[in-house]
Amino acid sequence: ADLSGLKRLDNALGRLSQLQRSLVLARAVNHVGDRLRTKLTRTLANQTGLPYRTIRRAFKVERANYGELAYAMRTQGGDISLKYFKPRET
């Protein structure tokens, strides 16, 4: 495996102060987490038939910050009312 990118990243992060390093890493974690959330939401919208907006609102997101470098998505299942599926009479 090519580890040259990791060495460059380690050197770049080594030049930053502790606060700057935490902020840079938090931004990176949030960027990747947001991209994952978008992909996950689009996939679930296709699989369930629910509108994208409905699924997006069901996710509770805790973003990373300088004190905690974790990105958490939480949701819970259960019965879904028919009104969220945009039903129409045919």
Offer a few descriptive terms.
mainly alpha, two-stranded antiparallel sheet, 2 strands, elongated
Characterize the structure shown.
It is a single chain. The chain has one domain (3-73). The chain has three helices and two strands. By secondary structure, it is mainly alpha-helical. The longest helix is centred in the middle third of the chain and has 31 residues, at 18-48. It has helices at residues 4-14, 18-48, 52-58, and strands at 60-62, 72-74. The chain has a two-stranded antiparallel ribbon with strand order 1-2.
Number of domains: 1
Order of helices and strands: HHHEE
Helix content: 40-55%
Uncertain stretches: none
Strand-pairing-aware structural class: mainly alpha
Alpha-carbon Rg, integer: 19 Å
Q: Per the principal axes of the C-alpha atoms, what is the gross shape?
A: elongated
N→C terminal distance: 57 Å
The count of helical stretches stands at 3
| Proportion of beta-strand residues | 5-15%
Mean pLDDT: 91
Strand count: 2
| Spatial order of strands in the largest sheet | 1-2
Biggest sheet statistics: 2 strands, antiparallel
